[in-house]
Amino acid sequence: MAAWLLAAVFSLSLCAQSAWAAPAASAERTVIPLGKAVGIKLFAAGVLVVGLADGDTPARTCGLRQGDIITAMDGTAIDSTEQVQSLLAEAAGQETTLTVRRGSSTLALSACARPGAGGAWQLGAWIRDSMAGIGTLTYYDPTTGQYGALGHGITDVDTAQLMPLASGSIMETTVKAVKKGRKGDPGELKGDFSVQRDVGTVTVNSDGGIFGTVADGEFLSGGTPVPVATAQQVKTGRATILATISGSDTAEYQVEIVRLYGADEPTRNMLLRITDPRLLSATGGIVQGMSGSPILQNGRIVGAVTHVLLNDPTRGYGIFIGNMLDMAG
């Protein structure tokens, strides 16, 4: 659960015993658990329709719907809201063909924009082309340079759909303040990354998190690889999470895995309870921006924090690390 602005190694080994050599076996996969807060920005592949104006508008007349993605206008690929405004102005009310992605289908809709109160040509739809916020890096694979974060996808706040990704980046940031979570009012990590530097790319936005490559090796220097747990190796009971709730200092906090839901559910695999007095005092539990905080148990990385329960901020959900890695693309 990120706070949005509107938070593989395989090897073979041989063992000899007496005069016989055991069959080669692949070593456990290891990654470096992180818990580091980062700024995240995404740019959409097209523009997302987040709402429609009331009344008899060009958008409603042509059949445009909330959640549609406009990818082109009269054959010109779209990558920003400003470009949409410019092309509508060029058409000056003439019929425009919108190429629209709706689920797995691609549609061609014809619309004639109308002048608004300020003179600008309008369809009568609210559109969005980017999002930005703060989240937490879950793991880093130094062999490939790839990372995973959040444990859930970045969705549009209005449509709840995954943001269609054209490009994105992660940025170095520090946590400036914490809004403490309370029953019915989720807390939030706050940080300003607008003047900081990009340290990596975002290439995948999936239900299991965002994934990409770290471009700046110094940003994630250090850290010790740990084995990746299978779903069967995760147990109820004591565990820890890594999180950054102040500045750029990452700390380890005590939690309890209260319940396991199994690996069949792709993203909500376990129920967590924060037990560490330091974290409870500082944040009230799980807050927006902590999604992606890695969960560790018995020397392994077992998953990542994903959501908080609104009626109890001391509890939240987590995803198995195996499910997260499967969605890395």
Would you kindly provide a written description of the structure presented here, covering whatever features stand out?
The chain has 329 residues and is mainly beta. It folds into three domains: 30-43 and 130-220; 54-123, PDZ domain (Pdz3 Domain, Roll), CATH 2.30.42; 226-326, Trypsin-like serine proteases (Thrombin, subunit H, Beta Barrel), CATH 2.40.10. It is 9% helix and 49% strand. The chain is built from four helices and 27 strands. A hairpin with an 8-residue loop joins strand 16 and strand 17.
How are the secondary structure elements laid out?
Blueprint: E1 3-4, E2 12-13, E3 16-17, E4 20-21, E5 25-26, E6 30-52, H1 58-62, E7 69-73, E8 76-77, H2 81-91, E9 96-102, E10 105-111, E11 114-115, E12 121-122, E13 125-141, E14 146-149, E15 165-172, E16 175-179, E17 188-191, E18 198-201, E19 204-206, E20 209-213, E21 226-227, E22 237-246, E23 249-260, E24 270-274, H3 277-283, E25 294-297, E26 300-309, E27 312-320, H4 321-326
Antiparallel strand pairs: 1-13, 2-5, 3-4, 6-7, 6-13, 6-15, 6-21, 7-8, 7-9, 9-10, 11-12, 13-14, 14-20, 15-18, 16-17, 19-20, 22-23, 22-25, 23-24, 24-27, 25-26, 26-27
